[in-house]
Write the structure tokens for this entry.
Amino acid sequence: MKQTRAFIPTLKEVPGDAQIVSHQLLLRAGLIRQVAAGIYTFLPLGKRVLEKIETIVREEHAAIDCVEMFMPVLHPKELWDQSGRWDVYGDELMRMKDRHGRDFAMGPTHEEVVTTVAKEYLNSYKKLPLSVYQIQTKFRDEQRPRFGLMRGREFIMKDAYSFHATDECLDEAYNGFVKAYNNIYARCGLDFRMIEADNGQMGGSGSAEFMAIADVGEDTIVYNEEGTFASNIEVHDLQVGDPSPDGVGVVKHAKGIELGHVFKLGTKYSESMGGFFLDENGEQKPYIMGCYGIGVSRIMMAALEQRNDENGIVWSKSLAPFDLHVIPVDVNNTEQLAAAEQVYADMKAAGFDVLIDDRDERAGVKFKDADLIGLPIRLTIGKGITEGMVEFKNRQTGESQDVALADLKDFVQAQYDALT
Ligand code: ATP
Ligand code: MG
């Protein structure tokens, strides 16, 4: 991709309304722009990062036989009346009327819709278990939308739902999701922890949250250093130094960003919405459900909060919007430009996603933007090209060295493979 066509509006100044580093970087590196409080446009770079996250999510769901579908944003009020949530969900539920005056909710979560869809099909134990998911825009009229993608009013979530005949079967699926979630956050390059969560008003018998460790996090984690206990403070209201509930050591506090949530729902929705199946003895029973959410857009925020330095973003190679940044220092120097275009073509042919900074800008501006955008590898084509040399820079370690053009492809490949 040529940078002159890439629509990457970087900012020199730190935007005044962005209080935390990740939010500043989202704006400064040209990943997103705000449209209204808690409502954002993803610019091309941000969109590429989202797609990287979504691909990881899709691969890990395929690995546990969870199948993708796509449900509507608009939910007729009748469905929410059946579950009883139209009245209890409160002001966070975005509501609207159609031209005939009929009420709709804009989906903040999809238990009602998925149960309605599933119940027509799941009439026998032979059709269970089933796990489905979607990646979709969710709407929540949050009281305090803030911190960019951290707490939006419109945001992207992966939500999955599973249906079972027995508790044992639900446990098995739940454990599968826990494994998939661990893989997803690890592959996204995050420092995270799974903790015991509050069952809340959802009812049900067990739940866990996945937290990115970050000082700006809105959740408080209580944990012991021995690693045998970690929970949301909402579950165990413990002060620093209190004995750990499992008897091992004392507890500490840490701040976390909630990345995801796995939850054993039980039969709340199947019973209230008429989701029944016939078991092996011909007996009618409500199926047992689980639900599993990931804040897809919030992952981007957490990654930025954890992976940055004073010059900008330091992407993991798994989420970087491009793999390589090729920079001709002076695009008016025909030798430099021609060599850079050749490197660009060769690296693309080798399978890399490459961004070439073909802008007619000063070298200093280009290097600053490159550090800010934070692609894992930078290849600078400057004066050294007269001797056939290119400067290689690793954004993660900051190390740079000159490499001969003839060795460049193998060198970049080896360096790229060694990145995290
Ligand atoms: P929170 O306690 O942060 O409000 P929640 O318990 O309401 O989260 P869930 O309903 O479990 O969240 O939603 C699943 C995931 O969606 C969360 O783990 C989080 O990563 C993400 N998420 C929830 N609300 C928002 C939001 N307003 N903006 C961005 N992501 C969100
Ligand atoms: Mg919430």
Notes: The chain is about 30% helix and 30% strand. The chain has a mean pLDDT of 96. The longest strand covers residues 251-266.
